[in-house]
Amino acid sequence: MTKIRAKISGIQGYAPPYILTNQELESMVDTSDEWITSRTGIRERHILKGDLGTSDMGAEAVKGLLEKTHTSPDEIDLLICATVTPDMIFPAAANLISHKTGIKNAFSFDMNAACSGLMFAIITATRYIESGACKKVIVVGADKMSAITDYTNRETCILFGDAAGAMLLEPTTEEVGIMDSIFGTDGSGFPYLHMKAGGSLRPASYETIDNKEHYIFQEGQSVFKFAVTKMADVSAEIMKKNNLTSEDVSWLVPHQANLRIIDATARRMGISKDQVMINIQRYGNTTGATIPLCLWEWENQLKKGDNIILAAFGGGFTWGSVWLKWAYDPS
Ligand code: UT7
To answer: pTM for the full model?
Structure first.
């Protein structure tokens, strides 16, 4: 029997217009452009202003995706949104995105695996397609990180930005699409990266607000150590598992949290920097959106059959790698 795979058949990104530069951050906290650039690689990030939420950015990306792939909203069977900043705890941002884009025949849900969320969502979508349960699935990675960032804390406020990316997945019988994946989680890593309040353990109160517990809490150095090891390990592991050499890999698409983590991963895989998609300098860490934003920006350079490795590490801890073969040539 011919194997049905899931292929990415379209990709679209969205970043809100306001740009927060390192220079502006210098006027907000005790930091410098030199420190931020040398420690993280980030120069600027986009910030969603006004009375808007994550679903508004997700909807922008999905609208563009439907348009460019000539897909009617009625054809979509499933929409998954990877996010840690849904508009509200419930309903899911995915439901709001579907509503805002006229998607009526699909079921939809959110997936929370922090910075690895997009990859967890891709593989979930892949299983729905491989099983024959769904024909057209949209995976959205969207985060309004500015909503949970403390702009008086120099250790975190320099890192994050807002954006969304959306991809269409469809079945194929060709030797392209999602080929393999490896994932891991380790809940014991939660103390190093989490948001303390606003969930069922510590609902919002005057105390949680006074203590600034509704913002990202990160022990940067500890997370850095885990991230470097895990992202590099899991990327090397998927290559070994599938007998891929560094010459076979056309592109590494790493989660964009820190340029030093990206460099370490590329070194471990033995691939050169010009095979790595890097746009952290313009977006910062947009959590669920980093990987689709890269694929969107590089779309015109991708060729059918290109071997691409996606790799991520994030809060939870969560990590993973996906090997895919790009499914179409530039239009
Ligand atoms: O995407 C989810 C996963 N998250 C990550 O992968 C993030 C992983 N962590 C990191 O990327 C890095 O740890 C950071 C970028 C967050 C921090 O870089 P670092 O090289 O680990 O710096 P550090 O935390 O060790 O701090 C070094 C120094 C400290 O000063 P002292 O104690 O040496 O005097 C900090 O107080 O740099 C200071 N510092 C800053 N200085 C200027 C921390 N933040 C800043 C800042 N500007 N924004």
So the answer is: 0.97
